[in-house]
Amino acid sequence: MSTAMEGLLGFFGASDSTALGSQHASQGAEAKLVHHRGEHQAAGVPSGEPQHSPRDRWVHKTPHLPPAALREALFNAAHHDGPASLAESTGMVIATTGNRFIFAKLLQKFLAGLKHSLSGDLTNHALVMGLGKGAKSICEGLNGRYSHHCVQSTNWPGHDTEYETGDAWHVAAELHKLELILNILTLGYSVLYVDVDHVFYRNPMHHLLSLQADIGLPDNHCELTNDNTTATKDSKFDQDSSLIFAHSGPRAVRFIYDWIAQHKHDVHRQDGLIRHDQVLFNEVLAPHFLRDAGGGGDAFVRIRKLSQDRFPSWCSGPCGCAGRSKVAPVSFAKEEDPLEGIRGGVLECPESTVDQWLTFHYSCAKSGPEKEVLMDISLALLEEVAPIDMSIINGV
Fold this sequence. Notes:
Blueprint: H1 2-27, H2 56-59, H3 67-78, E1 92-98, H4 100-116, E2 126-130, H5 133-141, E3 149-152, H6 168-186, E4 190-194, E5 198-200, H7 205-209, E6 215-218, E7 243-246, H8 250-267, H9 277-290, E8 303-306, E9 321-322, E10 325-326, E11 331-337, E12 341-348, H10 351-354, E13 359-361, H11 368-379
Helix pairs in contact: 4-5, 4-11, 6-8, 8-9
């Protein structure tokens, strides 16, 4: 079984890479990257051979993880109570990725939320993929305090510093994220992928698995969304790809595989437009898969829009949403810097609102330092959270 699965992973990587390599050679053009909310044409087609492009150092390399290491880490994450408890296991993994810069700033805060969520220590279920050796070293340096599982991408050519939305390494990270999800699905597990700038409040596994969904992403804004309703061909999508739920099965595999293929196809467009993973989901993939759905949402892939009532984002305010309305804080005493934003504070949100949260995403922060502070403020809303001591990470 394991040999067949490794062969399946190799087939996905080889067939996709070969086809795209032929396409790239015929085009001979380098696409200019754009912000995921903006679109513009490239000023012109650069000259030179395609293989000299920095982009080509990663786009033709399938970032598959070593199958043996991945199988072991996934088994331990999905079934952390051991073989005796397999009958009760969810068979689900919580996954995240990042390079050294991101992990040094945010990984311990992410793991602290997992460990101190109100539904028990979820770091047992966490698979953390480092993009580069430095990232894996940081991940392993935290194993003394948390119970997560560290693996390393074997084909990460990107840098270890911060990358901006729209640069080549941001797109590379998106592809690595989707490839990780595909790897997990093809090995037989369901997965909740979350960017490392999330804080967990409760165990989301049982809620997500109860939805009878193949794919689920949260709303970008406050909406009257029912997590239990399957999207139909008339649905409009504005979803946040920083959190992706994929249920084990062929339908989710097909969806993620097509998402990767479309992403790589965009990289080679001669018109210079690259749509990032979030735009591809909202404008291309979700509408395509639901195009022939019946009135009851009887589509090939069952897609769920997840409510910000349960999966809020800082973009909607410090206390998230209640339907279409933003929730006002009970109190928010904060210190602010004109350039870097919030530098400290104490936040109190309505208890009835916080009781609904499963995760909280700290997007739309003014700066990296503000995001770190916001995650600390959020962790303070959890019970008995240990202070975040970044000194335990070697070399940071």
